[in-house]
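Re-run with default settings, no changes from the original entry. Doing this only to confirm the output is reproducible before filing.
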Amino acid sequence: MNSAQRIRRTMQGLGTDTLPVAPYMGNHGAAVAGVRLIDYYTQPTTMADAQYAAWEVYGQDMVCIQSDNYYIAEGFGMQADYHENSTPTCRRVALADLSDVAKLKVPDPYTQGRMHVYLEATERIAGKLKDSVIIRSPGTGPFSLAGHLLGVEKLVMHIAEHEYGLADVDIQALHALMEMTTEALLQFSIAQLKAGADIVQCGDSLASLDVISPQIYEKYVYPYEKKFFDAINPIAHSYGAFSLLHICGDNNRVMQLHAETGADMLEVDYKADLKAYKEKIGQRIVLVGNVDPSGVLLQGSVEDVRRACLACIDAAAEKGGFILGSGCEVPMQAPVQNMKEMVRVARAHQNGG
């Protein structure tokens, strides 16, 4: 059974030969391949070849075309500074004020911003892997993308001001912005499917309960994430592909809403209670996670990795519907032996459906 078959059977609720393993490895691939980060996120060939090189080292079941957060936002006019060995930083947001929303247009994923880098990287690695390994595309969620365009502090403050009556906020403009960012993610994801992606993603980490309340999530974020999944799922499924929701933090209080977005897969952060997720929503959505990327994969020993992986397996692997993964993105400098151990533990686990 190859990696693609292993993931697809898990998505179908069927048994597999071993437990699927899919750590969220983006920039770590650049470190494994020994390439400069600036080349990795600006050159599609470098990105694809680095991910392929990392897969040759680890043999995990999923490769991730992933690096930074601004590839879609730049298409709207956000300006970023690039750095030789770190990801881009925001120089100037696209919106000085909410009143400027009407001036924005949903960007073309093929010609605006750096979306083309990720699309071309997906196409290249899809050609090299030839359906043997699952390819996961990136995708900035609607709320996070709105934060990149307006400024995170300003976005969150406007919502708080409106909710508590502290200021007169053009809330319709804010919703117009969310509609636009949802559409931008949808268009990019469709392009990724055409390029060969097997998983399209809504990565909405600004929507973490580490940042906003459950009430704000339900009112301002959930409707747009659900709108995205309602639109992308029929398209993805027609390609034989799947959708994934990724939100960092301890989001136990909104896990039911996460499942109700319609996402096929939910990546559970290391801060969350994986066992509770399995018990409460594990029959409705495939769970991915949730080894601590920094505390264990980066800073831990090989034995620490083994114990953490076994704890995740104990919490969520019973009756299938689970993929062993990292709670968030694997740090660039995570030791190779730690990542190999994660894959080894999964391969040693007999997996029933």
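The domain at 3-351 is CATH 3.20.20.210 (TIM Barrel). The CA atoms of residues 24 and 329 lie 5 Å apart.
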